[in-house]
Amino acid sequence: MNEIQERLEEIRELGLYRKLRLISGPQGPRVLLDGRPVLLLCSNNYLGLADHPRVREAAAEAAMRYGVGAGASRLISGNMTIHRRLEEQLAEFKGTSACVVFGSGYLANTGIVSALAREGDVVFSDALNHASIVDGCRLSRAETFVYEHCDLEHLEWGLQEADGRGSLIVTDGVFSMDGDVAPLQEIVELAQRYDARVMVDDAHGVGSLGPEGRGAVADAGVEDEVDVVIGTLGKALGSYGAYACCDRTMAKYLVNTARSLIFSTALPPPAVAGAIAALELLVEQPERVLKLQRNARLLKEALAEEGVRTESETQILPIVVGDARAALAASERLLERGIFAQAIRPPTVPDGTSRLRLAVMASHSASELKPAAREIAQILDSEASQRGEVAFDFGRPATDEPPARVFDHLTEAA
Fold first, then answer.
1. What is the DSSP letter of 264?
2. Count of CB atoms within 10 A of residue 119's CB?
3. Per-residue buried b or exposed e for 51-82, using 16+ beta carbons within 10 Å of the residue's own CB
4. DSSP per residue over 44-63, as a string?
5. Tell me: the pLDDT tens digits for 346-393?
6. 8 Å CB contact between 305 and 380
7. Which of 80, 22, 74 is CA-nearest to residue 270?
8. What residue spans define the domains of the chain?
9. Which of 25, 153, 159, 229 is the 20 to 30 Å CA partner of 59?
């Protein structure tokens, strides 16, 4: 135990210590955090549907009708009519012939990447892909070529070097820590040129981008050219779980090969019913997506007016501070002023790029976001002054090095 305690102290000294904070009551633009009211600026509840009355009522009704749990994996006795209903509605929404629901986004990515790539194959993964994709690459036992973030030249070089062994290109649609969008049209073109499949994790794009909020893939106009589109039920749709939209043959293949589906208990019916209700609200009220986009622009512009620049195309607005301790200190001081903006530190982001990751919701108001921008700027300016930084650029990493490890050769999964 002494070794564990020493490691904990080391983590604390590096500014990387984490603790669980307690939210009381429902998720919303304002919450009670550890007993204190705060403005919530770090939630993925982008459309504000997690506490919507229709979503709550649907979940409660499903609990009474179907029970709380599914009781088994979907391939045993856990595949219920409500699961099929959700899959049909998601497939219709995304314009695909089939959909497979998974227990979580992490389970979907780890299971699908390892199902589509085998030993001897090569997977091409963006350097800033989500950890679940990285772990899926590891589990696949395929070689992994990690291309520089959104660097199409580096990706093509890797495809050429793979010499026909390239089986899969996998990328986030919207990158969760930077808020930028993958060049999906160009990635699809490269995949077709080099005969590789494309898988897109669009967890942060659904509900925020594209026609009717269908996501980054739809926004890029490549819905018919991406082999598997992953989405989540736990962000814009306010519930829990994930899904893969694809053609019928691919769906059958995933049911038979994705270990994270085969060996996991099916989603609980209340979560499924809540997701169905949220999806119906998104279809009926696409103006929610427009409100989210307006709020994102509003906060970005308000920050810029205060001298804080954030390079983002979406509702995710990162403010790169650099040092992990400085990012944590800024987050704690903002909490004292009633603003919850989480500090994101390694290993979630590369060394030297610790940040405040702001996430806007459609349910925020201008009267909340504009004062928050002023508070954030004041805190960041104060923290920079204390560190003796006269001209601190909040929008860039503290180093000129690329914000991720760069691989210029085929390597084991990163």
1. S
2. 8
3. bbeebbebbeebbeebeeebeebbeeebbbeb
4. S-TTS-TT-HHHHHHHHHHH
5. 999 999 999 999 999 999 999 999 999 999 999 998 877 666 654 344
6. no
7. 80
8. 21-50+286-386, 53-284
9. 229
CA angle 186, 283, 46 (to 5 degrees): 70
Task: Please state, in angstroms and rounded to a whole number, the distance separating the CA atoms of residues 373 and 300.
Answer: 8
Measured CA to CA in angstroms, residue 128 lies from 186, 314, 323 at distances of 18, 16, 19
CATH topology of domain 21-50+286-386: Aspartate Aminotransferase, domain 1 (3.90.1150)
Strand order in the sheet with 343-344: 316-322, 354-359, 343-344
Which residue has 């990328």 as its token pair?
A: 171
Residues known to be catalytic: 176, 204, 235
- Cite the DSSP H helix spans in 45-167: 53-66, 81-94, 105-116, 131-140, 152-162
- SS3 annotation, 277-338: HHHHHHHHCCHHHHHHHHHHHHHHHHHHHCCCCCCCCCCEEEEEEECHHHHHHHHHHHHHCC
175-233 pLDDT, tens digit per residue, is 999 999 999 999 999 999 999 999 999 999 999 999 999 999 999 999 999 999 999 99
- Inter-residue contact 139 to 114 (CB < 8 Å): yes
